[in-house]
Amino acid sequence: MASPHAKLLTRSKTPFAEAPWQQGLPSPYYKETHYRFREWLKKWVDDNLMELADEWEEIEDDAKLAKVFQLFAKEGFLLPFALGVRVPQKFVDMAGGQKLPGGVPPGEWDNFHDFILIDELARTASNGVVMGNYGGLAYGAGPIVHFASEGLQKRLLPDILTGKKRISLAITEPSAGSDVAGVSTVAKLSDDGKHYVVTGLKKWITNGIWSDFFTTAVRTSGKPGDQKGISFLVIPRSEGVRTTKMKMQSAGSGTTFVEFDEVKVPAENLIGKEGEAFKYIMWNFLHERETIIYVALRFCRVCIEDATNHANRRQVFGKKLIEQPVVRYNLANMARQTEALQAWTEAIVYQHSKMTTNQANILLGGNTALLKAHAAIVVSDIAREAGYLMGGTGLTKGGIAARIERIYREVNGLATPGGSVAVMLDAGVRQAIKTVGLDPSKL
Ligand SMILES: Cc1cc2nc3c(=O)[nH]c(=O)nc-3n(C[C@H](O)[C@H](O)[C@H](O)COP(=O)(O)OP(=O)(O)OC[C@H]3O[C@@H](n4cnc5c(N)ncnc54)[C@H](O)[C@@H]3O)c2cc1C
């Protein structure tokens, strides 16, 4: 009945702390390569990141943070970070034949490896550790991987995929967040057509402070509010680029304010076609939203694990907390929401794995937006309930509630970036109305 590979896994003994497949229950989704990868990665995270996560937000020394990023680079993480759900051989070659983490053969890498990758990193309960190392590369390199010319890919990706250079995604502006079409950063092509001159502001750019390149949404024509006329330019850190680190509620991912003041950018740094980037931005969001869902899901399980362990230890009114029916009722509410989130997430991961990128964007874009909103709401509820269950300890930094306290401060960092809850709920319904009944084979 159980998967023959389940014996490969070490697992928490706390109920609901692991996904059903990780507890040894049968699942149609996971193959031997997923079990092996999960086990390798769990140990790697335990050995390299767990302790670090407790101090991550306090680290001011950029050289120390850079060393951790280089650890990821050495272990081959940057390829799957940048590529997401598939790792074609041409990109492995651009990375100098780099091996994937855990020795997964590139041809086997799929959506479930991608899910496991983020799931295990998120066990640190630190969005700073995850997004501080993953966010800029994953979301900033995506448009180059999917839409740039072979020439631009060959020029930029070898250094990016091996960690010699870092990159981030710069779309949001002080006056254009949810409304991406409001972008007003201007890129004007020079008379000889050799370069663009870029002027504008970008806000909340993950990893921006450490970035050598910014995959930047600029306006090459039209006016703020027009979807047409937005283009993607890769802007190197150069004269006229100024970055300032922002102080955030949950720190550690290098959130940055970026100013472009008449920056000269080679015309060959244009990604895809001029004026077409609104579509590229929307496509890029699909994977970004999936990864935020995975973080939220693991955070739910971490909260349940640490709160349940506390309830089994803590004596109040002469009894362990777990012996109180109200406490079990609260844990049950956390568990049912998490298990439902797991099932919906696995269904979407599976559906995506069977589709082309075009099909996935059209047919899964709406449901993924709904799921992203749902995940943010669920993790917010669970972090709050788990915090209550810990009493005063839940408000205390460090110690047995450290992960719950951190996650509680992270929940809006999952609700807002990549599309806020209200915007995702609306987008989910609008997309469903547009795509209902479409035949995947005709897309
Ligand atoms: C930690 C962090 C990291 C980020 N990283 C990046 C990054 O790497 N690159 C990047 O480009 N951007 C990044 N962002 C920006 C992020 O994408 C935006 O914050 C997000 O899109 C929301 O935009 P806004 O903050 O301007 O809010 P607004 O768009 O001003 O929205 C404010 C509120 O109004 C609500 N709202 C908006 N429209 C509607 C509507 N039609 N109906 C009902 N309610 C609505 C929203 O839900 C939200 O609650 C990051 C943000 C954060 C906080």
UniProtKB/TrEMBL annotation:
InterPro entries, A to Z: Acyl-CoA_dehydrogenase, Acyl-CoA_DH_CS, Acyl-CoA_Oxase/DH_mid-dom, Acyl-CoA_Oxase/DH_mid-dom_sf, AcylCo_DH-like_C, AcylCo_DH/oxidase_C, AcylCoA_DH/ox_N, AcylCoA_DH/ox_N_sf
Coiled-coil positions: none
The protein's required cofactors: FAD
Superkingdom of the source species: Eukaryota
Keyword match Cytoplasm: no
Gene3D superfamilies per record: Acyl-CoA dehydrogenase/oxidase, N-terminal domain, Butyryl-CoA Dehydrogenase, subunit A, domain 2, Butyryl-CoA Dehydrogenase, subunit A, domain 3
Residue span, Acyl-CoA dehydrogenase/oxidase C-terminal domain: 278-430
PROSITE patterns on file: ACYL_COA_DH_1 (PS00072)
Record SUPFAM superfamilies: Acyl-CoA dehydrogenase C-terminal domain-like, Acyl-CoA dehydrogenase NM domain-like
The protein's name in its UniProt record: Putative acyl-CoA dehydrogenase
